[in-house]
Amino acid sequence: MSVHLNVLRARGLSVAVGGRTVVDGLDLQIAAGERLAILGRNGAGKTTLLHTLAGLREPAAGAVELCGEALVQIPPRRVAQLRGVLLQQQLDAFPASVLETALIGRHPWLERWAWESAADADIAREALSAVGLDGFAARDVHTLSGGERQRLAVATLLTQQPRLALLDEPLSHLDLNHQIAVLELLTRRVRETGMALTMVMHDPGLAARYCERVLLVHGDGRVEVGAVAEMLTAERLSALYQHPLRMVEVDGQRCFLPL
Amino acid sequence: MPTRRRALLVVAVLLLLALASIVGALLIGSYAVAPGEVWASLMGNDQGMAGEVVTGLRLPRALAAFACGGLLALAGALMQVLLRNPLADPYVLGVSGGAAVGALSAMLFGLPLLFVHGGAFAGAFGAILIVFGLARGDGSWTQTRLLLTGVIVAAGCSAAVALILSVAPEHKLRSMLFWLMGDLSHAGSPWPALAVLALGLAAALPLSRDLNLLARGDLVARTLGVSVRGLRGAVYVLASLLTAVAVTTTGSVGFVGLIVPHLVRLAIGNDQRVLLPAAALAGGSLLVVADTLARTVVAPQQLPVGVLTALLGVPVFLYLLSRQAKEGVR
Q1: Which range of residues forms the domain containing residue B285?
Q2: Is any Cβ of chain B less than 8 angstroms from the Cβ of A181?
Q3: Do A107 and B213 lie within an 8 Å CB cutoff?
Q4: Does B216 reach chain A within 8 Å, measured CB to CB?
Q5: Nearest to A104 among B3, B224, B273 (CB)
Q6: Which of A108, A243, B55, B323 is 20 to 30 Å from B221 by CA-CA measure?
Q7: Which residues 45-84 on chain A approach chain B with CB closer than 8 angstroms?
């Protein structure tokens, strides 16, 4: 798989929420096998930007291309084969088993009258096992804890097998060991399949450790994209969060302490 | 693991149940008919009075009950997915209220039966158009807003119904009340309703996997490639049409559309590919059984079947609710 292939491209992308422009004129390219973190304060427009990149929302200006084609021109089902989205909240109105929930990731790959095959079930089971939900297949989603439900959402996304994974706070509800486990799992998938990864995150230290590039969303229209070394500095992050931060390096890893 | 084989098995079992309920309806009644006579008259051999009772009275009535029960259960299942609310039923958005206003207006002005049916249909559709016209919007509050709008429109309709009843001449009141309670003794030919049930299922089944995703929320469905706006529109129209046809045929029979999808969901899960046909079959069977009871328990007096389904439905539903509360299920 070509590493230089652009999976996603945004040109002059502007995003507005309730009449307020939160992202103004973003130019962004995400290549296959690349990992990008999106950081910003609450309400800065990270989720809105992510949804716009995913095609769930129309941009105020500019355009998004997915795998070289204008996103709006691609049929929805094909879009869902190319990009997967992990939403911020998982709401289950009706009971459903864990396996069934993971299997909805196969939906874009199935013809209208087709049922999930044994191969589809294997993909879903493997994803469940990868997030540590072995033996949960028959459980009702309503009986899961917040963290287990979040890992199930990650498994559903992996079952979808997209070329670009857009994750909105994939670490929410996760305890420390599962945060690392999920990030390691995603990194492994990126390495093995060339999937591109874009994550909204809140921990700059984890962003520095697991991503190559960072997108800072200031919330007033300004956005900055660049390599981790350039973007994740005490100065920039203090300006981003409007709170003083100190950077320390421990064994070559950047950590950020709020003062 | 959802499989086609299991789905076919469930549908086959329910088909047998449906058949049994209809056979039961043909056998049971105040006029005793032997099983042999039922068989002979179904085969077209003249059995005199018995044949007349079986093919002229019981069969059309059982088929009409089956069609309407199926329509209501199917519409209820669709509404529950559409509103992402397990407590929704076909009437929650004012469809039956609108139909009642239309049908009763036609009766009030002494229009022929065709116009009563047409009025019911137009009223149901008018209510749906008003509700969705007013409740259209974006975001997660849509369902709540939709429900609220529907409930308000339904309240408006029941006020209009009360107004019609209060100004209607005495001799028209009885037929109006029977229409409102839901009653099969005046159901006409069962074939239009059966045809609509078949068409409705044929229209809903290709969408059923999309509906599985819609039940998990608009955003989830859209991330997985479902064109939610078009799908929701299609399901609105379909569910309202099915309800309108059912209500036009038998009046507003209660609880079938609420209880049956719930019972089926409890028994076989929420996969719409199985749930939709299973709910239609189970709903049909339930209404056939309820109607058979309605015309036999206090024979020769007949009860409106709507009273019976409500009497059966209320305790079952209260039980389901308390069970859900205990399990902490939303």
Answers
A1: 4-327
A2: no
A3: yes
A4: yes
A5: B224
A6: B323
A7: 54, 56, 76-81, 84
Residue B195 sits in a domain whose CATH number is: 1.10.3470.10
Contact B224 A142 (CB under 8 A): no
ipTM above 0.90, yes or no: yes
Question: What is the rounded distance in angstroms from the CA atom of residue B68 to the CA atom of residue B246?
Answer: 5
Q: Tell if the CB–CB gap between B2 and A95 is shorter than 8 Å.
A: no
What is chain A's alpha carbon radius of gyration, rounded to the nearest angstrom? 18
CB A183 within 8 A of CB A206: yes
Task: List per-residue pLDDT tens for chain B, 330 residues long.
Answer: 778 899 999 999 999 999 999 999 999 988 888 888 888 888 887 778 888 888 888 999 999 999 999 999 999 999 999 888 887 888 888 888 999 999 999 999 988 888 888 898 899 889 888 887 777 655 444 677 778 888 899 999 999 999 999 999 999 898 888 888 887 876 778 999 999 999 999 999 999 999 999 999 989 999 999 998 889 888 988 998 899 899 888 888 888 998 899 889 888 889 999 999 999 999 999 999 999 998 898 877 888 888 888 887 778 777 866 766 555 443
How many domains does chain B fold into? Answer: 1
The closest of A82, A88, A87 to A69, measured between CA atoms, is A82
Residue B20 CB neighbour total at 10 angstroms: 13
User: What residues pair up with B87 in beta bridges, in sequence order?
Assistant: none
- Which residues in B lie closer than 8 A to residue A112 (C-beta atoms)? 206, 209
- Inter-chain contact A87–B223, Cβ cutoff 8 Å? yes
Instruction: Provide the residue type at A259 as one letter.
Output: L
Residue ranges and CATH numbers for the domains of chain A are 6-258 (3.40.50.300)
